[in-house]
Structure formats: C-alpha cells, structure tokens
Design brief:
CATH architecture: 3-Layer(aba) Sandwich
Distance between the termini: 37 Å
Order of helices and strands: HEEHEHEHEHHHHEHEH
CATH topology: Rossmann fold
Radius of gyration: 18 Å
CATH superfamily: Alpha/Beta hydrolase fold, catalytic domain
Helix content: 40-55%
Structural class: alpha/beta
Largest sheet: 7 strands, mixed
Amino acid sequence: MNDLGWNENKRMGIYGDKGPPVIVLHGGPGASGSAAPVAEGLAEGFRVFEPWQRISGDTPLSVEVHISDLHQLVTDRCGDEHPALVGESWGAMLALAYAAEHPDTVGPLVLIGCGTFDKSSREETVRTRQLRISDYIKKHTKHRSDLRLASQEQIMKWHKMTDCYDCETDCSGYSEAEPFDTNAHTETWNDMLRCQEEGIYPQSFTGIRSPVIMLHGTYDPHPGKMIRDNLKQYVPHLEYHEFEKCGHSPSTEKYAKNDFYRVMCTWLRMNG
C-alpha cells in the first residue's frame, strides 16, 4: 500500500465522451471500484469520472485529505465547468463536505444512500442491521455461531444481506474493483466522527448553494427520512426521493434500478 492520492496512482475510471461532467464518489470509506455501476449508468449522457479515493499508507487519512484530492481532480479535469457530484453512502457525505468547502466549484449533488450525520441515525442503522442478522440466523441455524461475533464483525460479514433488498450484482463483479481497504475505512470514518463531534458537520453545510437530492431505498438500513430531516436543518433546499423494494445500492437493485437511473438522470439534466 502506498501513500498516493487519485492522481498519482492513476486509479480512475472514465466513462462517456459527451455531456456535462459528473464525478462519481464511491462509498466505504475504502470501497474502491464500488461506484462503477453508477458511473456506467450515467455514461450515455454525461462525461463521467470515477476516482478511486486515496488508499491507506504512511499518512493517516482524514476528511480534509479526501476533500483536497477531490479538489485537485475538479481543478485538473473540469476547468471552468462545475461538475455534478454523485456520491454513494460515504461518497455522498464526501460530496456534501466538499460542496461546503468549495461551493463555487461544484454543480448539483446527488446523495445515494447517504450516510449518517448524527448519533440517533447511526444507532438506528446498527439496530436495523443487527435485527436483520439475528432474524436471518434464526432461520439458518448453521450460522448460529455468528451471534457470538462482535456487532461490527457481524455487520461486516453480513453487510450484503442486511443492506440489499434484491441486488442483481455488486462491485465484486467488476474486474477493476479492489479488496476493501479496512485501514482507509477506519481512519477516514473516525475522522468523520470527530468532525461531527466538533460541530463541523453537518453545521457547515449551511454554505452549500448547489441543488441537492437524496435518493434512498426504503429497505436501506440507513434511515433515510431521519437523515433527510437532520440535513434539511442545514440544507433547506434538499430534495428527497425514495424507491420501494430497494436497499442501500439502487444502482444494482433488481426492482429499483431502472427507476433510479431515470430519476437521477432527469434530475441532473434539469439542475445541471
């Protein structure tokens, strides 16, 4: 593992050759390559960049480091254009943090399965996942020993089952996807929690001037309406759209995928 950002290690997918620029931000943190389905789905009408965020190395990762890397990408690749930011999960949180710090360089924001910015929403996310794991194991007793795992270990092992309603695929089906970077996840997420505890986020989001929409599945363990209500205190112009029979990754969900791309692309064209 090295200490390089997106530009130095050249880990970035590029999709499409016409239309307004869009930067797609993967989740995790540390799930490099997981945003490929979203990038591919936007390629017909947009010029799409899918940067793999900085990996773990000698320098501890922070929200500010990721913002700085993203700003370099915006400056290098977009010039005077204001790219849309489309973020999944943690990537949605990064999009908000970037837009708060650089409101004059960014276009519309699409928050897909946005992560949590308050303790109550985080606790509800953990509670939902634990209940789903417990119910599943009760029906599949061969996994009963997993009930002795720590909560975070359970969630990491069973995350697809707890987060998907009916996923057709996941990032593991993409040849460019990388193994989950646990160190990058831990360092970045701990810094995001610090920023929340110190009142930086979501309070600084009052400076966001871009149009913003949350796209959320009703089965997503992240409580969409709770997250929306918290964010709207700071981003009052936030729009919200839910998808039925849909979990945390609408781009790969069997019943919601087509509607998800239709809603997202239409909204981006209207607000770009």
